Amino acid sequence: MTIFEGRVKEWDMADLRPEFAENGALGVYVSVPFCRAKCSFCNFASGVGTPVAIERYVESLCAEIGSVGKRAESLGAMLPRKADTVYFGGGTPSLLEPAQLNRILAAIRGQFDVAADAEITMEAAPGQISDELLKAALRLGVNRVSLGVQSFIDREAASVGRSHTGESCVAEIARLRRAGVGKVAADLIAGLPHQTDASWQRSLDAAVASELDHLSVYLFEVDEGSRLGAEVLGGGARFYAPEVPNEERASAMYERACAFLPEHGFGQYEISNFARAGFQAKHNRKYWERAPYVGFGLDAHSMLKIEGPGLGAQGPECAVRFANADELARYDGREPAEITRVDARGAFEEALFLGLRLVEGVSVAALRQRFDAGWVDEAAGIARELAAGGLMVVDGERWALTSHGRLVSNDVFGRLLESVAV
């Protein structure tokens, strides 16, 4: 762009159900880091897995879910009882066997009160959802499928290791609809090898002509974390690296999507996300609104609110972020590999750069209510300078990024955070 030796003892999850703090509905993320083949642009912690490795992973995953209450308690975090979103990400979660999906969801429901109308999402690769898994997923409550399309153009998809064609993607979307999937989403990437302005437009046309409800548009990340990115940075020729559009062209493609998609029913609500009315991703909004969420599995991240001495006057805004190991050999589902405590000042910074990812921006009144007014005043001065430069919209009620500000959002966030640095 985010296996195990021995067997885990099975138990009745209900017997280990912990006491939960009521702190708003929780989002649950489940990492399934296995694919049939790893795409050249991928920099996630994922890889090809054997059936035995996947089964061992599911055992460790269920054990981790079963111990979530003890983990939260050890971190001094508040863990909500109710969950209203569950998101299976990857990797390719659709490679799970129906029985494995059933066990994971049973473990989640054994620990949380999953709302009857919860949004339950499964990521999938086009053409890699078996009829059996699809039927099981729908029976188990999955009501949203997000397809890793990346491009509707055959040559572009093949160049990065995707096995689908544009035609098969359209057919897959229609198949999911016929099966009864209530919400269907897809991803596109601007900046893939061989991509041109004309081919990008054909992908956008195909997306809006399909039965999609939601579309995510990402810029190809040129970094050494992926095989393709490493070739581009190193001036290599493998993975069609010389055919990758330059940053200026890729940015223009992104801007084209931002102009085109809202004109065709997909309103932009976040830097990379577009949706038809009523179909915004509820789970992903939790990240940008600093709502509590907990992640299970390889490289999964969590954020829970926390209160305690030394965290500042605005205790309820303080949090603990923790993440699991990002290598299969080191993941065992027992202890987080990384723990970061977020005090009130850090929470304010997060509220700025996460909230400004949303097109609606952040409420100034809410910032003043939740945080030190002096911090808000410090940021306000920089916000006005950024507004004068055409990067932000600033009025008495709300701060938001302009369309150009969203394109250079990292620079904007950097300027704002400099203003509130201790």
TrEMBL record:
- Record's keyword terms, sorted: 4Fe-4S, Chaperone, Cytoplasm, Heme, Iron, Iron-sulfur, Metal-binding, S-adenosyl-L-methionine
Q: Briefly, what is this protein's role?
A: Probably acts as a heme chaperone, transferring heme to an unknown acceptor. Binds one molecule of heme per monomer, possibly covalently. Binds 1 [4Fe-4S] cluster. The cluster is coordinated with 3 cysteines and an exchangeable S-adenosyl-L-methionine.
Question: Listed GO cellular component terms?
Answer: cytoplasm
Spell out the molecular function terms from Gene Ontology: 4 iron, 4 sulfur cluster binding; coproporphyrinogen oxidase activity; metal ion binding
Q: Which family does it belong to?
A: Belongs to the anaerobic coproporphyrinogen-III oxidase family. HemW subfamily.
Q: What is this protein called?
A: Heme chaperone HemW
Q: Which Gene3D superfamilies would you find in this protein's record?
A: tm_1862 like domain (3.80.30.20)
Give the domain of life.
Bacteria
**Alphabetical list of Pfam families matching this protein:** HemN_C (PF06969), Radical_SAM (PF04055)
**What are the subcellular locations of this protein?**
Cytoplasm
Output the GO biological process annotations, alphabetical, semicolon-separated: porphyrin-containing compound biosynthetic process
InterPro entries the UniProt entry points to:
Coproporphyrinogen-III_oxidase (IPR034505), Elp3/MiaA/NifB-like_rSAM (IPR006638), HemN_C (IPR010723), HemW-like (IPR004559), rSAM (IPR007197), rSAM_horseshoe (IPR023404), rSAM_sf (IPR058240)
Q: Where is the Radical SAM core domain?
A: 20-267
